[in-house]
Amino acid sequence: MEIIVLPDTDAVARTAADVLEEQVRSGPSVLGLATGSTPLGTYRELIDRHRRNGLSFADAQAFLLDEYVGLAASHPASYHSVIRNEFTDSVDFAPGAVHGLDGSTKDPEAEAARYDRSIAAAGGVDVQILGIGTDGHVGFNEPMSSLASRTRIKTLTRQTRQDNARFFDHPDDVPEHVLTQGLGTIRDARHLLLLGLGEAKADAVAAAVEGPVAAVCPASALQLHPHVTVLLDTAAASKLAHTEYYQYTFGRKPAWQRF
Ligand code: GLP
Description:
Layout (H helix, E strand, L loop, with lengths): L1 E5 L2 H17 L3 E5 L6 H14 L6 E5 L1 E3 L10 H8 L11 E2 L8 H14 L5 E4 L21 E4 L2 H6 L13 E4 L2 H5 L3 E6 L5 H9 L17 E6 L9 H9 L8
Parallel strand pairs: 1-10, 2-3, 2-6, 3-5, 6-9, 9-10
Antiparallel strand pairs: 4-8, 7-8
Helix pairs in contact: 1-2
Bound molecules: 2-amino-2-deoxy-6-O-phosphono-alpha-D-glucopyranose.
2-amino-2-deoxy-6-O-phosphono-alpha-D-glucopyranose (GLP) binds next to loops.
């Protein structure tokens, strides 16, 4: 893991956007997109680069990480709607190039299997953006998710439903079930970009990157991946034991070495 502690949320957004821009400019790309608050600055930065510098997503495809079960794509809190409003409708993805799970499906198992097949058919994900939940979840892989899991239905913890209640009119409106890429599915992406912002994430970040690999902290499964970049602001990094080493390393990053 390359762990990079940056001064503030803007620096995290700019650095994450640099990684995605380099990927997209390298040729046809498959991006893994996360929802939630954490990547919003990154998406704003990419929209800005699209408008100012002509950064184009016309040859890219995108796959969402997860979706609420029971919400149609048209529901304002569905991750289909969120990613369109926050990012993809503001750049130039081709029609049909942004893929998500169908939360309104009557057959979640078949939908999950279809989704894993469609990611594989696209050639797999080049760069996967990830946020982290306060309980260490990535996507919606709650604690005790199998480290080898594929896309499937999960039940949200009470804590995650509370954390996400701000996106709904009423806390009871937060669905109890979700479809999420599994930890094994996520680890199939060639490059994982984990973003952590704010003090509320500090414990989860510390468990994920410095704790043992254990299903109780699903994000710790990322330690098994050969190419992970962790971008943190100082608040999210505040419970790490080895920050001095991460900063020492980043200060000596060879000029030729990419993220
Ligand atoms: C949500 C999403 C995750 C997200 C995480 C953190 O429930 N399913 O993809 O990374 O929890 O959310 P936020 O970035 O809003 O803190």
